[in-house]
Amino acid sequence: MARDREPVSTSTSEQRREDAAAWSPTARYLAEFFGTFLLVLGGVGTALFTAGFPSTTDNQTGVGFLGVALAFGLSVMAGIAAVGHISGGHFNPAVTLGLLAAGRTDGRHVPGYLVSQVLGGLAATSVIAAVLSGKQGAFAAAVDSGFASNGFGASSPGGFGLGSVLLAEAVLTGVFVAVILSVTAKQEYQALAPTGIGLTLTLIHLVSIPISNTSVNPARSIATAVYGGAVPLGQLWAFIVAPIVGGVVAGIVVRLVRRRDRH
């Protein structure tokens, strides 16, 4: 039963049992849907509309890799600020499973979170596709270019092979989950959590956009691959498996380290 008080507005209330009871499963799942929708809309939308504006051959007014990296970081910051106090602000299946492995989220909500995240991402790319359809040839051009999907080999922006992409995605997702677990571990860090998480995601994109177009988030990869065509769909498994493995390993390691510290 929810307590008769306002929940604390922090990005970590999902992990705090006294606040968790204040929100219904439906509210949590809608929050994860919205946060993932915002993340994909902001990041992928920037990649497709603004990174190479007005064209890939004449993009002097485009924002480039730096702008795309900032868009993902700012989007996750905004999502955590808006609804993080409701669901914990995961917006990413790898984060949810990593927090589960660390013992920092309630397993009852995990299936609902994963479904909500995937649906939120798909809703965002559907909106992007609808907007692109309003300009002649824009949607077809986006599909031909892979719709900002993740890839390896010929589909990697820098031509990196499968092994390099799997390693980068797993390690960077692990780093991301470890930062989330650390920055949300203590109450005094709560005000800094959205900024720390957002800047970490920005840094991760700056490192790995040339490698894989940066996933570290299966929901983001699924959302773009659906519109990207046969090649992104065929390579999608890598961007589901690697981030989840990285996130879960990070969660397990953090849990073991903290268990030793307590002893």
Order of helices and strands: HHHHHHHHHH
> In the CATH scheme, what's the topology name?
Glycerol uptake facilitator protein
Strand content: under 5%
Rounded to the nearest angstrom, the distance between the terminal CA atoms is 34 Å
Q: Look at the structure and name the CATH superfamily.
A: Glycerol uptake facilitator protein
| Helical fraction | 55-70%
Overall form = globular
How many distinct folded domains? Answer: 1
> What's the number of helices?
10
Explained architecture:
Keywords: Cell membrane, Membrane, Transmembrane, Transmembrane helix, Transport. It is found in: Cell membrane. The chain crosses the membrane at residues 33-53, 65-86, 160-184, 191-211, 236-257. Its main location: membrane. Belongs to the MIP/aquaporin (TC 1.A.8) family. The chain is mainly alpha-helical. The chain has a single domain, classed as Glycerol uptake facilitator protein. The protein has ten helices and no strands. The protein has helices spanning 17-20, 25-49, 64-87, 93-101, 110-132, 138-144, 162-183, 193-212, 218-228, 230-262. Helix 4 runs antiparallel to helix 5 and helix 4 (93-101) crosses helix 7. The longest helix has 33 residues, at 230-262. It is globular.
